[in-house]
Amino acid sequence: MSDNEIIAQVRKPNSDADNSESDEDEVIETFKISNSDAFECFAKGLIWLEQQTDSDSTERALLKRLRDRTAKRRQSCLRRSKLPFKPM
C-alpha cells in the first residue's frame, strides 16, 4: 500500500469489518431470571456478606431489602399460579 492508501484507510469511517467485530463483542444473551432464583441469590449473598468482617449495616440492609422484595414477588407469583381459573 502506498502512503496515500494507508492514510485513506485510516481516515475512512468505520468499515463493515470493523462494525461486525464490534457487534460481536456487544452481543449479550439475555434471559429472564425467575423471582425464586433471584431470592436464592440474594439470600446466599446475605449469608456471605454477614460472614465478612468488613461489611457494614448499610450493605446488609440493602441486601435484606432486595431479598425481601424478591420474596414478596415470588409469593405473589405462586399465589397467582395456584388460583383456580373460573370462566365468566
Automatic annotation (TrEMBL):
Region (Disordered): 1-25
Designated name of the protein: Jerky-like
Source organism per UniProt: Araneus ventricosus (Orbweaver spider)
